[in-house]
Amino acid sequence: MTDDITRRTIALALGASVLAPAAARAQSDTYSEDEVVRAAQRFFGAGAEGLAGVVRHVFSDLGRPNGYIQGEEGSGAIGVGLRYGNGHMRLKGRGVTRVFWQGPSFGFDTGGNASRVFTLVYNMRNADDIYHRYAGVDGSAYFIGGVGVNYQRRNNVTLAPMRAGVGFRLGANIGYLAYSRRRRLNPF
Fold this sequence. Notes:
The longest helix is centred in the first third of the chain and has 27 residues, at 2-28. Residues 6-14, 16-25 and 140-145 have low confidence and may be disordered. This protein has one domain: Beta Barrel (Lipocalin), CATH 2.40.128. The protein is of the alpha+beta class and 188 residues long. Strands 1, 2, 3, 4, 5 and 6 form a six-stranded antiparallel beta sheet that branches. A hairpin with a 3-residue loop joins strand 1 and strand 2 (95-122). It has helices spanning 2-28, 33-44, 51-62, and strands spanning 67-91, 95-122, 133-142, 147-149, 152-154, 157-180. Helices cover 27% and strands 49% of the residues.
């Protein structure tokens, strides 16, 4: 009986030691909620009220990201909208990549805004995977100092841009953002 308990204890210990490196590796390849909140607060500054709550909501939906993009963008719409931006993407343990984005939107949407954008990146293994179109639905109300978030998906990669901007934009729209290596005027 004692030998049986000892064998089970050793088997459990060996199983835990095999699983521990995989869990540690998964955490070392991703950002924790605290790391993201600190980076976003440094980026947005003190004016982004509710930022920790938005980050907490995204983490509860999607988990730990393996990267993020810090950038700026401008957009405007009267039914049909355009959005242009640029920034730097950081994938954990893989360095920094410059990115530009542009895209159209269609819907019940009016106004314009200039925003700082902090985008959480999920399931991206190669920095070149960002250079595609990502579809999304955006239902946002931008007021001075407001923070909004939406999700954009392509295959297994998910982007969660959080925007804090100046201006007024109200409505709901559908559209996509095309991420590129260079600034492009054509939003399509």
